[in-house]
Design the sequence.
């Protein structure tokens, strides 16, 4: 007599449960990947919104004997700090101006001469004077650039000037 082997396949209920579990796992993996991409895009979009909202005022940006006057305007945006870069004939200097008043070497407010330096508030502008000689510069400034820092993230340069004239009397 032949002996029948008792081989049973996976029941349709178990197969359905396994397919549902596999689908849930795949959806979770895809969601995690897409969510990470969306978060990275959201962070970089903070800087995208600054176009023309953090700028130099060319009317008040000029040089005087051993000094460089520049003006920063901030539009309808909250900015934590602004990174300022000034260069002249191979020399350069960078510093951060923040919302919280602080002392920055070789920089004073214009026209008061106060050494308590802070950023302009939203929808405002302020003018500063940088002591070129005090910072070790021997030539007049060639260029200035500013890059805002928003929510702790430094954005790219929002404005710069390469042709800086002498201040009118």
Sequence:
């Amino acid at each position: 007599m032949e002996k029948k082997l008792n081989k049973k396949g996976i029941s349709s209920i178990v197969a359905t449960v396994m397919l549902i579990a596999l689908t849930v796992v795949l959806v979770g993996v895809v969601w995690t990947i897409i969510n990470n991409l969306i978060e990275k895009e959201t962070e970089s979009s903070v800087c995208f919104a600054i176009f023309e909202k953090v700028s130099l005022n060319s009317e008040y940006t000029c040089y005087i004997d051993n000094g460089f006057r520049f003006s920063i305007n901030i539009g309808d945006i909250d900015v934590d700090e602004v990174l300022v870069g000034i260069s002249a004939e191979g020399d350069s200097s960078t510093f951060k101006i923040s919302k919280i008043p602080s002392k920055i070497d070789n920089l004073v407010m214009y026209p008061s001469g106060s050494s308590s330096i802070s950023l302009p508030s939203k929808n405002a502008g302020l003018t500063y004077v940088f002591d070129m000689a005090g910072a070790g510069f021997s030539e007049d400034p060639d260029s200035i650039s500013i890059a805002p820092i928003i929510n702790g993230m430094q954005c790219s340069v929002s404005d710069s000037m390469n042709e800086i004239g002498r201040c009118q009397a």
Q: What stands out?
A: The CA atoms of residues 15 and 21 lie 10 Å apart. DSSP finds one helix and ten strands in the chain. The mean pLDDT is 86. The beta strands are 54-56, 62-64, 67-74, 81-88, 91-98, 107-110, 124-131, 143-150, 153-154, 159-161.
